[in-house]
Design goal:
about 280 residues, alpha+beta, Double-stranded beta-helix, nine-stranded mixed sheet, three-stranded antiparallel sheet, 17 strands, about 25% strand, globular
C-alpha cells in the first residue's frame, strides 16, 4: 500500500480531536459529548461524518455518549431502523436492538462479514454502545476492504473486477440459527433469497474500490468451476484478513463505536469466557 494513504496525524476541529487508531483504519474521538436534549451544531456533525468516511470507523471514548443519548447519536449519521431478530431483540422502545452474550448464541458474528450484505440494501452505518464490556477479551476485529483492494496486484484486481459472487444469508447458518420456529424460519429465508453482488464494489460516496465478498455469506463465484471458485474466494478472504488491513478494537464500558458498514468487514472474538457482554446496536440508513 502507498504510505501516503496512511493516517498518521490527528485531525482537530474546535474541541474535538480524532487520533488515528491504526495507520489504515479507525479513529479515536475525544472532546465530543452528546448531552440529552442538546442539538449538535451542523459544522460538528459534518466534521464527524467526514471523519467516519475517512477512517472507516470511529470510537467515542466513554462519557461521550450514554444509554439515553445513543439513539440520538445514531440520528447524527442518518435514519436508524430496527434490524434485530429473536436472538437480538429490541432494546427499549426505540429502533435499537440488544446484543447480549447471555442470549445471542448463533456464533455467526465470529465469521468475517459486512452487516446484512446478503440483502440488496444493507445499512450505511452500524453503531454499537457498550452497556457492559468484558474485563478482558471480547474484542471486535475490523478489516478495511478498500485497503485490502489496494494490496492487490493491478492485473489480479482488473480480473476480479469482472467477477460476481452469490451472497446467501444462510450460507453459514445465520438465518437458520436466528429463527427456531419453522414458519418464521421459512418466512425469513423467503425474504432474503440468494443475491448476486459484484466481487469488487465502489463506495458510493468516496469512490474507493473494495473487495466485497464476505466469508459469512459468499457461496460461489459465478461462471467459474467449483474448485476455481473456492480458490478465488480463499485468495480474496486472505487479503481481507491481512494484518496490514486489520485493526482489533477492545471494548470499555460506556464506549460507543460507529463504522462505515459499506467497507468495514468485522467479526467478534469469542475469548471472554462467561463474562457479561451487552451492546446496544443501531442500524443506520
Amino acid at each position: 500500500m502507498d504510505p501516503d494513504s496512511f493516517h498518521q496525524q490527528p485531525v482537530i476541529f474546535q474541541d474535538i480531536r480524532i487520533n488515528p487508531f491504526t495507520p489504515v483504519a479507525g479513529g479515536i474521538v475525544e472532546g465530543f459529548t452528546l448531552n440529552e436534549g442538546v442539538e449538535v451544531a451542523e459544522p460538528i456533525r459534518d466534521f464527524v461524518y467526514q471523519a467516519l468516511l475517512k477512517y472507516g470507523y470511529l470510537s467515542f471514548v466513554p462519557g461521550s455518549v450514554n444509554d439515553k443519548t445513543f439513539e440520538a447519536f445514531s440520528h447524527l449519521f442518518g435514519s436508524p431502523r430496527f434490524a434485530g431478530n429473536p436472538q437480538a431483540p429490541r432494546a427499549g422502545t426505540g429502533e435499537m436492538n440488544a446484543i447480549d452474550s447471555s442470549r445471542k448464541k448463533t456464533r455467526t458474528n465470529y465469521i468475517w462479514h459486512i452487516d446484512q450484505a446478503y440483502r440488496p440494501d444493507p445499512q450505511k452505518f452500524t453503531a454499537l454502545h457498550a452497556v457492559k464490556a468484558p474485563a478482558f477479551g471480547g474484542e471486535t476485529l475490523f478489516a478495511d476492504a478498500t485497503a485490502a483492494y489496494r494490496l492487490l496486484d493491478p492485473q489480479l484486481a482488473a480480473w476480479l473486477e469482472t467477477l460476481s459472487v452469490i451472497h446467501d444469508g444462510d450460507q453459514m447458518g445465520l438465518i437458520s440459527m436466528s429463527y427456531r420456529e419453522p414458519a418464521k424460519l421459512l418466512d425469513a429465508r423467503q425474504k432474503a433469497p440468494p443475491l448476486v453482488v459484484p466481487l469488487v464494489r465502489v463506495h458510493p460516496e468516496t469512490g474507493a474500490k473494495q473487495l466485497f465478498p464476505c466469508e459469512l455469506y459468499a457461496q460461489r463465484v459465478l461462471g467459474l468451476p467449483r474448485i476455481v471458485s473456492d480458490h478465488v474466494l480463499h485468495i480474496v478472504f486472505e487479503y481481507l484478513r491481512s494484518p496490514e488491513v486489520v485493526a482489533p478494537y477492545r471494548w470499555q464500558d460506556g464506549a460507543t463505536l460507529i463504522w462505515d458498514n459499506r467497507i468495514m468487514q468485522h467479526r467478534g472474538v469469542f475469548n471472554y469466557g462467561g463474562q457479561e457482554r451487552v451492546l446496544h446496536r443501531a442500524v443506520i440508513d
